[in-house]
Amino acid sequence: MVEDFEIIGPLEDHEVIAQGRRVRARHGLTRQHGKGSWRKLKAVTLVRLSDGSLRRAEVHWYEAHGVGRVRWKIKKFLD
After folding, report:
1. pLDDT by residue (tens digit) across 24-57?
2. Domain-by-domain residue ranges, the chain?
């Protein structure tokens, strides 16, 4: 949806969507970022878009221990 954004506020109501073998993109994540116990998560936060506007949005990302958070994506705007 939106690719260029900056997270401004804290991540609220975070929740694990998938972990381990249920993460569909795990092979690509391992190839690009290295081995790890991959999880897909979602949360609600305040983001700044490339045009400078602030919006509340649901964001999704992947993370693994030792790798960190990667591939952030805005899934929907909540305002």
Report:
1. 999 999 999 999 999 999 999 999 999 999 999 9
2. 5-77
